[in-house]
Specification:
The complex is a heterotrimer. By secondary structure, chain A is mainly alpha-helical. Chain A contains 24 helices and seven strands. In chain A, helix 12 crosses helix 14, helix 15 packs across helix 16 and helix 19 packs parallel to helix 23. In chain B, helix 1 packs across helix 9 and helix 1 crosses helix 11. Chain B has a two-stranded antiparallel ribbon with strand order 1-2. The chains are: A mainly alpha, B mainly alpha, C mainly alpha. Chains in contact: A-B, B-C.
């Protein structure tokens, strides 16, 4: 990995610059993309693209002059574009009605971090719109450059590749746009067009291919998946003294639990995963994991709508095979975009064996998920806490001053804002918010979403994460924040380097890691360390003798235990 | 910009010279009637063009708390759950530009050694955008005195309100000045802000210049280069009764004004000004956020193609058996 | 076409609204310039008729300012004729029919001058007479 610039250097070079600016407004057409190491994501492997049956797979490199585009690529793009215009009203509309008011410009984290004007959402869309005008409008055909249109040539394709992979589909621009123009929609379709001529990136296509084959992005095979989870259970036993054996691929359970595989294999996601398991164990939840549907995330979303559908289809298929009543989903961002806004449409209706989710602990019926039959674990836990079903000791998290990073998709494609906050307030005593226009529906992306969490573009990621990093730094200085919670597996992977760069000293944690740290479990040993096996600053008191321990134990068993028995 | 300005100026020159050369019938009658026709047909054609494409996915942008657990208050307007909420969101969007009201401006500042990104609330665009649209509609509405006989009672009301200051004769309408100020703001903003200048196309300047043409010629007609208003009404009533007449005493300024309006009407359906209708079609705004309760249908939903569990188990059966994972078919059965 | 049950009614409403002036005028009788009751026996106004049509409001405004604010009561027209600055005794001496002259045109063009906030329509006051302001 190349050396990152200093904060000052980066901030200085983030100031907007406007190469080739003219009064005629099409000066940007004269600047061409330049590909240097670190400025682009590695292309997908030929083999991966072939295995997935992607169209026109070929060898190419962004730094090459010639990208080996397939024969007749102009026609391929034109036809694919025409096809999408027929299929998506959103695309037609967003191509037609933008007035270039510029309200979106400084809302984009990529523009704020790079100062590159083509990262203004409006101009990113113009990259596509200029071709739309030329190919699909009479005025554009007649007026040419004056009408803001331009012909397709290889440099346009290169520009698309550069800038549609500098958009994380976070939809922040769409919130501010007076017409709701959603760059995520445009980026998704632009990436589909690029895929039509065989251009994809390794960091997206490999997980897609893995997920298709093994059920998860990392290509973890079933036996390994089980082993890793069991290994995490050993850690849980070390910390709590409780032995957990989660069920895999078992039929006849009430609930199928699906979370991003990132939670299973990488720090700090694994602590969140341990948190889920501890919570389920404590509740006595009747659930199963699946190795076949072992991925909540869906990099198909960053490839094409068909690929998203293909990857997502496993959830309902597995729910049907295992005969579960409903699905509980783990903490993940784009996973929840798919589940909340796409799953029912693409792969619904839900299998007949499924019913509207009901919490077996509180009896709450989640009517708002009556069709999709899947709820988010933050919703589930918030309900438990509201009904006082968990014995929590938030003081175990007292060494932390926690802030909450709303992930783009749960915020702007779902509206899940209060649920995780309710949970946070219950499990830790020191919770502070980042500035108002960097959270909730106005939240800033981690800078590496939509499949851009790859090492080779680390500087770009630090730039795109500037607004988030800055807001974090602000609360670090002002309130002494030392932990940032989030409900997204990609965040858990991408925020730690971002925090190291922008606000060193802040750790990144999943919501359910904090829940499990605070959760007092029946029959657990006094906790002296957190899930990371770091010593707790405020450990549980170790009782002097057996009798005291027993007494404490029976007290601690608390309401949750009794309620479970009641149910 | 220069190109757009030239285009707009040439409209004025062509109309002025044309009317002077005795082409009043064309500029006063044929062009405006044709413009209305093109406007209506164009808008309908564009709208049907959008409507012919389906909305495959329900992709509302949630601008607030979802409706989930009963004790959490949902954002009825920003993440509307019901049709009433959606209508509320759309009406407020169309009438008050609610999304634009959120606007902020970001600025990079150094604070000691630390770079710091600062955000300001920035409502200028919202204020002047709203002002422009409101003033435009008010002015448009006032013009109905030329198209209706007798003039309905509410038009004098509006005029009295608009001319409340009783300044000058003919009474000065505040909306005229506000409209001019708003359009000038929108134009200067495009020229002054380097971001805006960089993205602005001739198609962004042209409508502003046409609007300026309309406003300036209109103000001139009322206050400076006056025509006999009674004659103008004879002409406009001739248009709306499809009984065209060309009365004496209608000055050149009027033809320039009318031609600018006609150009705007003809231009509108084929330009970004279609945002007027487009906003109502925007799927990130006009869809309810109830996607987990009601299934949205995609008319072109392709058939499911995915790697089935059976295929998966076929590949991993041996290792799954070894790991003690439950199987549909035991490895022995295969042999 | 998709969502036809929203799109078609919306388009119809749009078309009806835009063409409303055309429809409304189907039922109104043909429009013609309002017939004004012209003064009997007067040969010319204070200024030529074209000027008066376009600028009478400005002239009256100037007269008002001259008479009330500057105490100036004499107006010399572009043809050199001299007139009394006086609405009721000069203008209304000839234009005696407010309804038939002023209002007919003002109403049709939705003009609501505030002359009559202060001035009183001739005929409403008895004994008003004069020589028409000609000096």
């Amino acid at each position: 990995m190349a050396k990152l610039p200093s904060l000052q250097e980066l901030a200085k070079s983030s100031l907007p610059r406007f190469p080739g600016a003219t009064l005629e407004g099409v000066g940007w057409m004269r600047t061409k993309p330049v590909f240097t190491p670190g400025s682009y994501c590695y292309p997908a492997k030929l083999e991966t693209m072939q295995k997935l049956g992607m169209p026109n797979p070929h060898e190419w490199s962004p730094e090459d002059e010639d990208w080996n585009l397939p024969q007749g690529w102009e026609k391929i793009i034109h036809n694919a574009f025409a096809d999408r215009l027929k299929k998506y009203r959103s695309l037609r509309l967003f191509m037609d009605i933008c007035v270039r008011c510029g309200a979106c410009a400084d809302k984009c984290h990529f523009f704020l971090g790079t100062g590159d004007p083509k990262n203004m959402p409006v101009l990113r869309a113009e990259l596509l719109r200029s071709v739309y005008r030329k190919d699909f409008t009479t005025a554009g055909r007649l007026l040419g450059k004056v009408g803001g249109s331009r012909a397709l040539d290889p440099s346009v394709i290169k520009e698309w590749f550069s800038y549609f992979y500098q958009c994380t589909e976070c939809r922040r621009c769409s919130l501010f746009c007076p017409y709701g123009i959603d760059t995520a929609e445009i980026t998704m379709i632009a990436r589909e067009l690029l895929h039509e001529v065989g251009l994809g990136i390794h960091w997206i296509m490999d997980p897609v291919s893995n997920c298709n084959r093994t059920g998860n992005h990392l290509g973890i095979q079933p036996q390994a998946f089980k082993e890793i989870v069991e290994f995490l259970c050993e850690d849980i036993e070390t910390i709590t003294g409780i032995n957990i054996t989660p069920p895999f691929n078992e039929k006849g359970h009430e609930i199928l639990f699906i979370t991003p595989s990132g939670d299973v294999f990488a720090e700090p996601g694994i602590y969140t995963f341990m948190g889920y398991l501890m919570l389920f164990h404590e509740l006595g939840l009747d659930y199963t994991l699946s190795t076949y549907a072992s991925e909540g995330g869906n990099f198909g979303l960053f490839t094409s709508s068909e690929m998203m559908k293909k990857i997502n289809a496993k959830m309902y298929a597995e729910a049907e095979r295992l005969g579960v009543k409903w699905i509980l989903g783990g903490e993940c961002g784009h996973m929840w975009r798919v589940i909340h806004q796409y799953m029912d449409t693409v792969n619904g209706p839900a299998p007949k064996n499924m019913v509207t989710p009901v919490s077996p602990i509180t009896g709450t019926k989640f009517d708002y998920a009556s069709s999709t039959k899947m709820i988010h674990i933050a919703e589930f836990t918030a309900d438990l806490i509201k009904h006082d079903k968990l014995n929590l000791k938030p003081s175990r998290n007292d060494h932390l001053t926690v802030t909450f990073h709303d992930s783009c998709n749960p915020a702007r494609a779902m509206g899940m804002l209060e649920e995780p906050r309710e949970v946070l307030r219950a499990v830790c005593n020191n919770f502070v918010e980042m500035p108002a226009n960097t959270i909730r529906e106005q939240t800033f992306c981690c800078g590496s979403g939509s499949g851009l969490n790859t090492e080779e573009i680390m500087e770009l990621r630090m730039r795109a994460g500037l607004p988030r990093g800055n807001a974090l730094r602000h609360v670090q200085l002002k309130h002494g924040v030392n932990a940032m919670a989030c409900v997204c597996a990609i965040d858990r992977a991408t925020l730690p380097p971002l925090a190291d760069y922008w606000a060193p000293g802040v750790t990144v944690t999943g919501l359910h890691e904090l829940v499990a740290n605070a959760l007092v479990m029946k029959g657990e040993i006094p906790r002296t360390m957190d899930l990371r096996q770091e010593d707790l600053e405020y450990p549980d008191e170790v009782p002097d003798d057996e009798a005291a321990e027993n007494a404490a134990g029976s007290d601690d068993r608390g309401k949750a235990g009794q309620e479970v028995q009641d149910v | 910009m220069a190109f757009s300005l030239m285009m707009a100026l040439s409209i004025a020159v062509i109309a002025g010279v044309g009317a002077g050369l005795g082409l009043e019938y064309f500029f006063g009658i044929v062009l405006p009637l044709a413009a209305v026709l093109v406007f209506i047909a164009g808008v309908v054609w564009r709208v049907i063009g959008w409507a012919r494409a389906p909305v495959p996915f329900s992709i509302a942008t949630t601008g607030g708390q979802q409706k989930s657990l009963p004790w959490i208050k949902p954002a009825c307007l920003d993440a509307p759950y019901t049709s009433v909420g959606v209508i509320g969101r759309m009406v407020l969007e169309a009438v008050t530009f609610r999304s634009l009201f959120r606007n902020t401006a970001a600025e990079m500042r150094g604070e000691g050694d630390e770079p710091r990104l600062i955000y300001w609330s920035s409502k200028w665009l919202w204020a002047f955008g709203l002002l422009f649209h409101a003033a435009f509609f008010l002015v448009l509405f006032r013009h109905f005195r030329f198209f209706l006989e007798p003039v309905p009672f509410f038009i004098p009301w509006i005029e009295n309100l608009d001319g409340l200051m009783q300044f000058g004769v003919p009474r000065f309408f505040m909306s005229d000045a506000l409209l001019l100020a708003a359009v000038l703001f929108l134009l200067l903003r495009r020229l002054k802000d380097p971001k805006l200048r960089y993205i602005s196309l001739p198609a962004d300047y042209f409508p502003l210049f046409v609007l300026l043409g309309i406003i300036i010629s209109g103000i001139a007609l009322r206050y400076f280069a006056k025509s006999d208003v009674a004659s103008i009404k004879v002409l406009t009533m001739g248009l709306v009764t499809l009984n065209p007449v060309l009365p004496e005493g209608v000055g050149t300024t009027f033809f320039v004004h009318l031609t600018f309006v006609s150009v705007l009407l003809i231009y509108l359906p084929f330009s970004k000004l279609m945002h007027m209708a487009g906003i109502f079609f925007s799927p990130t705004r006009n869809m309810p956020c109830n996607t987990r309760q009601y299934r949205h249908i995609n008319p072109w939903n392709p058939p499911k193609k995915y790697r089935t569990y059976a295929e998966y188990e076929d590949e991993f059966r041996e290792v799954m058996a070894e790991a003690g994972l439950p199987l549909e078919k035991q490895p022995e059965e295969e042999k | 076409m998709y969502n036809a049950r929203y799109v078609i009614p919306a388009l119809l409403v749009f078309i009806i609204l835009i063409t409303l002036p055309f429809w409304v005028n189907v039922v109104t009788p043909e429009y013609s310039r309002p017939e004004l009751v012209l003064p009997a026996g007067a040969e010319a106004c204070v200024e030529p008729v074209e000027y008066m049509r376009a600028e009478h409001m400005r002239l009256l405004n100037e007269w008002r300012d001259a008479a009330l604010r500057e105490g100036k009561r004499v107006y010399t027209s572009s043809t050199g004729q001299v007139w009394d600055i006086n609405l009721q005794n000069t203008c209304m001496h000839c234009h005696t029919d407010k309804a038939g002259f002023c209002d007919a045109c003002h109403d049709s063009n939705s003009v609501d001058p505030y002359c009559w906030d202060c001035h009183i329509e001739p005929g409403a006051v008895t004994g008003a007479s004069g020589n028409g302001g000609k000096q």
